[in-house]
Amino acid sequence: MAAARGWAGTPYLWGGNTRSGVDCSGLVQQVLRSVGVSAPRTSAQQAAWTIRIPAAQARPGDLVFLGSPVHHVGIYVGNGRMIDNSHPGTVVQERPLYRGSFFGRIPS
């Protein structure tokens, strides 16, 4: 969680994956890279890569997805909250889960 929280305040940039600007899947990819995990780039690819789990089994560090097809991803922090960056004009921040979210666990 420290790696994800270290991105707090980074502005949204579609397709971005640097501290100058990052989108939702770029944030997830960079946070995972910082802890030694190589993840796909887009939210849809990340959803396909993870193992879907029931909400009752979600734990901090699992990924949170939204949409069908998937169009958004964040990192679960627990207690119904996630870290993400959602759209232009926002920054990486912790927020409540979106209604309709589902969870994926990073494969070992």
TrEMBL record:
Residues 1-108 form the NlpC/P60 domain. The keyword Hydrolase applies. The keyword Membrane does not apply. Keywords: Hydrolase, Protease, Thiol protease. Belongs to the peptidase C40 family. This is C40 family peptidase. The lineage of its organism: Bacteria, Bacillati, Actinomycetota, Actinomycetes, Pseudonocardiales.
